[in-house]
Structures are given as structure tokens and as C-alpha cells.
Amino acid sequence: MHATTIRSQRALAPVRRGFVRRNLPYLLIAPSVIMLLALIAYPLLFALRSSFYFWNLQVGPEPMAFVGLDNYVQALNAFDFRAALTNTLILSVLGTAIEFGLGLTIALVLLKALPGMNVVRALLILPTTIAPIVVGFLFRYLYDPGGGLLTWVLQSLWLPVPAEGILGSPTTALAAILFVDIWQWTPFFAIVLYASLLSVPDEIIEAARLDRASAWTILMRIKLPLIRRTATIIVMLRFMQIFNTFDTVLVLTRGGPGTSTRTLGYSLYEQGLVNFNVGLVSAQTWITVLIVNIIVALYVFFAFRNEEW
Amino acid sequence: MTFDIGNMSRRNMLKSASVAALLASSAGALVAPRRAGAEDAKTVRVLSVEDPFFFSMKAMIPEFEKETGIKVELESLSYDALQTRLVSAFVAKTSDADVIAVDQMWLGQYLDNGWIISLNDYIAKDSDIDLADFIPEVLYSSNMWRGQIATLPVAAYAQGVMYRKDIFDSFGIAAPPTKASEDWTWTKYVETLKSLEGKSFGGKPLFPTVICGSQPSPITHMFTQLSASHGANWFKSFPGAPWDFSPQLTGPAWAKSVELYRQLYKLSPPEAINYVWFDAGTRFAKGDIGMFYWWTPYFYLVKNNGYMTGKKSDVMDKYATAALPKADGVAQTVSLGGWSLGVPSSSDRQDNGYAFIKWATSKATQKKMAEWPDLNFQFSDFARKSLYEDADVKAIYPYLDVQYDMMKQGNGKITRPPVPGYTAVESVLGLTLNQLLTGSEDPKTALERTNSLFESILKGNLMIPYQKESFADTLDGAKALIGTLGKA
């Protein structure tokens, strides 16, 4: 019995090894695929199914009726959809562009071997480690019209501050939310871009300098093209993150005054976690997913059209 | 079968060890719940909101544990987080708690969906609950749905007026009355505020009043007191039967209330457009506000410099409370709200849950909560009549007569109807009101637009036409139920 077992094990071993060798790549990525399916595909498909049903937890615990595209029609015709989409696009485009510009500037400064840069690098990462909801509360006090630090700074610089306060006026509230995002996430760009710039070979820069290329030319013609892939990816990631912003909006303005700071993320929060309208929020989720993916697809297409992606 | 350990590879050995460890831990896990089960029977998990009442209730819990031998696992969350967690647990049919804090606006939804149990049977069998001691208006507004008492009130709120005695004395303004009166009207209230316009006090510019402007809930909570006082109804027929949720925002009472609220905003600090509940209260506590109306917990919260800080505010000994004004020729309706405790149907320790609720809402515990000295004495939100006549408690909270008078005029089902889908229509109303405060749009036009949005939302939520059974939900019916259950 013992001998037979060992013989058969030895006979099977090459077969098993061959199977493993042939399928090793699939086996290695299998856990990731299973995780992705469980954590991303399943919720999205569940939301897709729910979006075709009338399912409001305030009215009943289970889906009550198949309603076809009614939830999508309701979502697109909602009183706040247009304002929320416009504000979201403004925040996402401006936020990403400004954070990238400032982050790149800081990264270039960090490359200079100035005294104290190690401390600066360590401090830079701090804002990104704070939860957005905490950042929201912090800025609520900084923007306070009755003695908030930022209000005081603006007044000291003779800049006009609305009587209703920075967060109370439709003209300044969205900019105030944008500023919070820039404060928190510019360091992220700075650190990532700094790490990428470090990988640019010194010899190329030296050669360019010997050819009397200016600092601007070196940046535009050598450094940026060499870090383009990293830059493109973090721009895409931040764009998608800002597109879903809701926590700072919730703490700072609750979408007001009026609809001036309402974002798609805030509307999703309101429909899902305040109104508990599962069907409607599922439709809104899919509309948001489609908008983001169309924008990102266009962005990726234009960013990488001349190279392999 | 033989096991040749000599031929065993290191990998196989590691595998075997891992499986053995997993089995051992699983066996432990299988045994552990049974051992914990015996202890669990002597435990009650309480999930609460972190409103002012929570802190004094928490301080009293060792007494409950001593009296009953039941260990309390108390957890608190913010309003939004609590509702999200509860609904998630209910939908997933998991047992997350044995006692939960329930806002009056969630009651109908929770009971209709079978997420919490009716307490009628428990109350009927309980000879010492003293149900008749509860203020009927409170039970009706916050705890009853379709003839069931599903929760009991741990903190009941009405609305009332707070004003600065020293400022009124200084400018020779007559103090507002402590009892409701035909002469104390909203028109008179605004006139009084206008007499404070442009004035300074103690070297600081004074604002006559302060309002909540933030959407959707804070502004709706404050505005609906004004609209209810003017006789405004949200729907064609609710809470009386048959239920008809056709919106009624185009009525003159709504437009008049909006005009009045706009006037109040003009007399407030401009930044009040972004004020949530506690912003208005803490602003009064700062000392530059003459008079305002708000939920009765602010009767004691304004003693703090900041929100629940325990540090004494500048106005601590300088303010007094008064009755809410009423509208000319309209019977007063005061907004009632607050927090109650209920038992989830998923709980497997419902008896413990009821025991905790009975204890927390009892006269004795509520009195001890009121006498807890921390945070400048932070609890007078009684739903029991007897506590409004208790000399010890009245010595700490001298405004209790005013508060009780407001409670007796309360009707939470009219001011903010706790109907399915309420939050969706509140979002729209809150937004409209917020826009109207800063904009110049005609209230009538804005309200007509909001009425259409209400109708569309309510139709989308299958509320128009209403397809379920109606219930004649009246205060008299509530009193009858209290009598029946109390006598059983």
C-alpha cells in the first residue's frame, strides 16, 4: 500500500508540475481577479440590477416593483443634477490642474539640495494623512467669519470677504471647498512627482546643460516627457477622487448656499444614506460611473495615443 | 494507512501545521459562543446618538448594572452614522443592538418595515411603567405609529424663546411672557426684535436674533415651527384619515411664514445662512444676540461657552426663557421632537432591551440624569409630567414651567410629518428656503415650484395616490391607547 501510494505520487508529480507551470500566470493573478470581482464587479452589478427597481427603504424593506429606466429619468431630471454635475466638473478639472501645477513646483524645489528639505518632505505628507471629514471641521473653524484664521488673513490683505462668510456666499463657497482640496492633496502630487523626477538620469540633464539648454527647456523637453506616465496616472487618479467628493462638502456647506456647492458625490450620499432610496441612488451611481469612465477613457486615449498603454 | 513522516517535505509539514492551527482555532470559535452565550443573557447592547441626553444617561449606567445585574455595552454615534448603521444592520438582518435610539422621523419606517418591535405587549403587562405620567402629546408625536407604542421617550424636545434679560432691561423692552398668550404674536416678536436693530451692548454690536440657514434639516426644523404656528400643513390629509399626501405648499400660510423667516434672517448675523443647529445656540451663548427661538435643550446648552464644553458662557446668568409667539387668530402648534428608545426585532435579548428602556425612561433615572452636575447640568428634556412639578429639579432648571407649557401645545406630526419619504421632500424644502433667504425670488413662485417637486417625489415614492392602509392618527386616539395600556 505504502509503495503503491509513493509510486502513484511520483507518476502524478510531473503532470501536476506541468499544469502548474502552464497556468502559473493565471494562478498568480487569480486571487486578485477574485477579489476584484467580489469587491468591485459584484456591487456594481448589484447596483445595476437595483437601478431598474423601485426600492426605497423608507417605504419598504424589499424592492417593490420593476420600473425600467424610471430611476434614470428621475436622476437626470432631479432639481439638483445640473448644478451638481457642473460643480463636480469645476472642482475636478480645476482641482486636478492646480494641484498638479503646485505639486510639480514643490517637487522641483525639493530636488534642490537646500537645508531642511528632509523635514519639509516629512511635513508635506501630513495633510494627506488626515481624514477629509476632519479636514472639513478644521477648515470650518478657519473660515469662521467671526475670527477664523483664513477670514482674518483675507481681511488683513484687504481682500473682500462676503458678509455671510466665505462658506455662506454662493460666490465664494465652491472656491473655499476647492481650496481645502488643494491644501490637502497638493502634497500628494509633490511627493509622487518628486519621486519620479529623482529617477530621471543625471547624465541626460548634464548633457542638456552642456548644450546650454535653459532650465525651462530641460523641464519641458526632458523631465516632463520622462515622467509623463507617472504624471498621467496620478492626474487620472486624483480626477476620479475629486469627482466623488462629498465629505468636505457635507461638513463645510451641506451643498449650500442654494446648490452652489452641491456635487454628484453629495447627491449620492443624500439619496443613499439620508433618503435610503436604493433604486434611485443605484441609477445615480451608474450615471456617475459612466460619466467618469467616458472622461477617463478620452483622457487616456489622448495621453497615450502615440505609445503602447 | 501509513504516514511516512520521514518523507514529508517542509512544505507539506507547514501545510499540515496550518490546517491543524486553523482547526484548533475553529474549534475554539465554535466553543466560545456557547460559553459567551451564558454571559450574553446578562448583557444588553445599547446603540445611541450622541445628543446631550447621552452623557447623563451614560453616567447613570453603573446604577442600572447594579440594580439588574445586566451589563450594558453602550455605544454612541453621530446622527447620520447611527441611521446608516441601523439601516444597514436591519437590511442585512443582523443583530447589532438590543436597544436603539430612534428619532421620531424614523419611527414609521422602522415599525412598518418590521425593524423594531411594538412595545404594547410589554407595556400592557408592566404594572409599574406609569404610562399615564408621560405627556400624551410627546408619546403621540414621537412614539406612536398606527396604534402601536414602538418606543419610549428618553429625551423630549419642544421649542421656546430665549432672550437676554440684561439687554431687554437696558433698552427698556418689556420681557416676553412665560405663558402662551393671545397678545404674544409673531408680529409682536418681530417688532420687539426690530427695536434692537442697530443697537450695541457692552461695547459690541448687537444682532436682534439668530436663525438656522443651513439646508436641509436645520433650516427646516426652525422654519417649520413658524409655519406650523401659522397653520401651514404639508399634506392634504395627514395625520387624520384617509391619508392623502398631495402637497399643500401653495397655501397662504406658507408664503406668509417664508416672508417672516426672511425678516428674521435680515435681523440675524449674515453668516447664519450656513448655521446648523448648534451654531445658532452657541452664537446666542457668545453674547451678541438679543432673542431667538429654538429647541428646548438649548435652554440649558446656552449656559456653555461652545457646544457641550462645560465651560460657562457669558450669558449663563443673563438669559431667560419665554413662550413661543403664536400667529393672529390661529391656534398654536409647537414643534415636538427628541429621542426615544426602541427594541430591534433582530435582538435576541428583547427582555433585557425593554428592561433598559423602562429604566432609562423612568422618573427616578430621569431625575438622576437631571441632577448630574457635569457640563453645567445638562438634562431637562423630560417626557414625564411629574418631573415638571418636582421641586428639586425645578431648582436646577427654573424654566421648566415654560417648557411644559410648550410641550402641552405640541404636535410633531403636523410640524414635520414622520411619513415615509419625508427626508426627500425635506431636502427640497430646505434648499428652497435656503435660496429664498439670500435671493430675491417671490416666495409664492418658489413655493409653487417646490410644491411640484414635492408632488413628483411623492409620486415617485408611491405615496400619491397612497396605496397602503390609512390610520386615523389623532391625539385623542393616542390618549385612549395610553388609557387602555395603562389600565391593562
From TrEMBL, chain A:
Domain ABC transmembrane type-1: residue ranges: 85-299
PANTHER family with a match to the protein in the record: BLR7065 PROTEIN, SPERMIDINE_PUTRESCINE TRANSPORT SYSTEM PERMEASE PROTEIN
Keywords on record: Cell membrane, Membrane, Sugar transport, Transmembrane, Transmembrane helix, Transport
InterPro entries for the chain: MetI-like, MetI-like_sf
Membrane topology: Multi-pass membrane protein
Similarity comment: Belongs to the binding-protein-dependent transport system permease family.
Protein's UniProt name: Multiple sugar transport system permease protein
Pfam family, one: BPD_transp_1
Residues passing through the membrane, by range: 26-48, 89-111, 123-143, 226-243, 283-304
Gene Ontology annotations of biological process type: transmembrane transport
UniProtKB/TrEMBL annotation, chain B:
The organism's place on the tree of life at top rank: Bacteria
Localisation: Periplasm
Pfam entry (one): SBP_bac_1
Gene3D superfamilies documented for this protein: Periplasmic binding protein-like II
SUPFAM superfamilies (UniProt xref): Periplasmic binding protein-like II (SSF53850)
Signal peptide: 1-31
Keywords associated with the record: Periplasm, Signal, Sugar transport, Transport
Protein's UniProt name: Multiple sugar transport system substrate-binding protein
